[in-house]
Amino acid sequence: MIQPDRIVPLNGREVRVGRYVLYWMQAAQRAEWNHALEYAIDRANALKTPVVAAFGLTADFPQANARHYRFMLEGLRQVEKDLTRRGMRLVVRAQSPVECIPKLAKDACLVVVDEGHLRVQRQWRAEVAERIACPLIEVETNVIVPVETAAEKENFSAGTFRPRIRRQLDAYLVPLRHRKVRVPSLALEFEGLDLSDIDKVIARLKVDRSVGPAPDFTGGSEQAKRRLEEFIGRKLDGYDTRRNDPNLDGTSNLSPYLHFGQISPLYVALKVGETSNPGKDAFLEELIVRRELSFNFVYYNHQYDSYDCLPPWARRTLEFHRRDRRDSVYSLEEFETARTHDPYWNAAQKEMALTGKMHGYMRMYWGKKILEWSKSPEEGFRIALHLNNKYELDGRDPNGFAGVAWCFGKHDRAWAERPVFGKVRYMNAAGLKRKFNADAYVGKVERIESGQ
């Protein structure tokens, strides 16, 4: 089922005679459980035309580097195979979507695009909507409840957002039927990139190579589903307690795949929800309430990537304590190279830089300490966001922006007042040690660093 409020026309153009329906794939990089793709197939079948999928591969996506591009290209290579099995072409061009989609739209009856929530994604869609002569229709598929349906304005905590989204779930936690393509597009000829050699594609794009591949993560829907099956089979039981111990590998590790749209959150929720495992409630709270609160944040708060996104109470209290003495102050270079006095923080930074993913509990501690050890809260915010976006596979994401902002008071309440933090929630190494064996975590990262 494709709920009507997932579907939003972005211009007032009329459907016209054309060679195909164009599906502009961007945020939802998968060939299944994709409402935008299925809607495109519906429209193409009604018009008796094929569907052609297109992806604009720009080398200058903000803060993306070779680590992100490799993972994404591995996923797109899988998409190409999966679409071929369903009778559809994928055309990938080394151009901005604003360049390549209008060119391909010249022969299209209409264009369908998945919804993107970040500033650059929304700008692309607005520009393409103006440039093309046929309809551009946006279909939401990377959240379970469409953002505007879940709430009509920014929510300031999970406490206010939770009841709003839960009221909607019965209408949206329903399977998506996969359509059969009536007119294949495989015989149509297009110029596009050959995805068989990813190194060659990355070299051609001339992307930032300062960050290497994430060794333990391979992109693509098949990999995502394998991780989901492993999570349900081995890790879901006890998830509510095991997830906070970085020594146990108790998390799903699905966030990179969700970030690139390589797996559907609806599919994940339905698969987890059909189990009787008691750990599912804690996981679904994170997948649905917490994750979709972050989409609410970036959609309604246009300052989501700046210090000004913080709630007034947090900025006031941090301002009041701006001149408090800090026991340590580090530069971006010292943070980035993990040269602080704290072995636990250093281990977290190294884990992220080496593997592309930092454990979630450590990421909270990591962000809090950047606030504590920066010369100003604004600089701390910039440093945390820069490092998160540069090294995390799931950086540059609503969850990432919300996670960094949370360390500075976003989506949280005021706590007992203390130096530097004011009323923003505080974390320290003693708290880590009460939760888990922090020294064992350091040893684990040291083994990764040494290649063991």
TrEMBL record:
Q: Does the keyword Mitochondrion apply?
A: no
In this protein, which residues make up the domain named Photolyase/cryptochrome alpha/beta?
Answer: 19-147
Q: Which cofactor does it need?
A: (6R)-5,10-methylene-5,6,7,8-tetrahydrofolate; FAD
Q: What class of enzyme is it?
A: lyase
Q: Which residues form a coiled coil?
A: none
Instruction: Check the record and name the PROSITE patterns matching this protein.
Output: DNA_PHOTOLYASES_2_1, DNA_PHOTOLYASES_2_2, PHR_CRY_ALPHA_BETA
Is the DNA damage keyword given for this protein?
A: yes
Q: Which domain of life is it from?
A: Bacteria
From the record, give the transmembrane residue ranges: none
Q: Which Pfam families match?
A: DNA_photolyase
Task: Supply the alphabetized keyword list.
Answer: DNA damage, DNA repair, DNA-binding, FAD, Flavoprotein, Lyase
Q: What is its EC number?
A: 4.1.99.3
Q: Name one GO molecular function term.
A: deoxyribodipyrimidine photo-lyase activity
As its record notes, the protein acts as a catalyst of: cyclobutadipyrimidine (in DNA) = 2 pyrimidine residues (in DNA)
Q: Which GO terms describe its biological process?
A: photoreactive repair
The family note in this entry says: Belongs to the DNA photolyase class-2 family.
* Protein name, UniProt field: Deoxyribodipyrimidine photo-lyase
* Source species: Anaerobaca lacustris
What broad taxonomic lineage does this protein's source fall under? Answer: Bacteria, Pseudomonadati, Planctomycetota, Phycisphaerae, Sedimentisphaerales
Q: Which gene encodes it?
A: phrB
